[in-house]
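Question (not urgent): is this output format expected?
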Amino acid sequence: MKKTFGKIFAVLALLLAVSPLSAKPKFRTVDQIKKKGTLTVAVFSDKKPFGYVDEYGKYQGYDVYFAERIAKDLGVKVKYVPVEAAARVEVLQTGKVDLVLANFTVTAERAEKVDFALPYMKCALGVVSNEKDYITDVEQLKGKTLIISKGTTAETYFTNNYPEVNLLKFDQYSEAYNALLDGRGVGLSTDNTEVLAWAIENPGFAVGIDSLGTLDAIAPAVSKGNESLLNWLNDEIVKLGKENFFHADYEATLRSVYGANSDADALVVEGGKM
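Got this back:
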């Protein structure tokens, strides 16, 4: 009898040890971040002009400008963690970062795994191609190779809607653009804001499809269940909207790329209102 009870208690102890109820959440609250004095933020390191590393090894871009302000208002330092598009959910689920600011488009599927704050940008998909093989309609892509980055809305969109298009997938944006430069695909698709900027800096290439799919929101993301940081971010975005912060961000990081006559309102979202 004693042996039987002993086995039962051992099993119960094991179940309690592995129970989700006993597991600590893999995220930090605002108070914990402040106490530590550092905010960890996942950003792109190769997606100019939104998140990239400059020639001096310093992170720059629209997302980075926002991250710096968040850290300032929290009263902490910021630590950047480079992330690939396909790993944006994972770095939050594993607690590697507190926050993702990496052109993260809000989708229903992603919202099941992470919590999105209010949007600060908007975009659709675009397609950039060599002017010698100019792509102006999706029908031109059927049976041909289109370059995309893994884990992006472009991958989902073309997989679901245009299975006749052959997708050449890469982990990093820099690899994808090099493939386009090398002629390994007739075009490349990602956010229209990004392909428009890339085409401006790369003569011989142009964006023939500048708006594909729906108009989407881009927002900061935190670990699922981290209401402390989520609520703080939402309040911050509303507050920053009152001072037109994201238009200032555009002027500081994007105006020189898109040009003097570009329309900031085509991209910027203030106060979380699309």
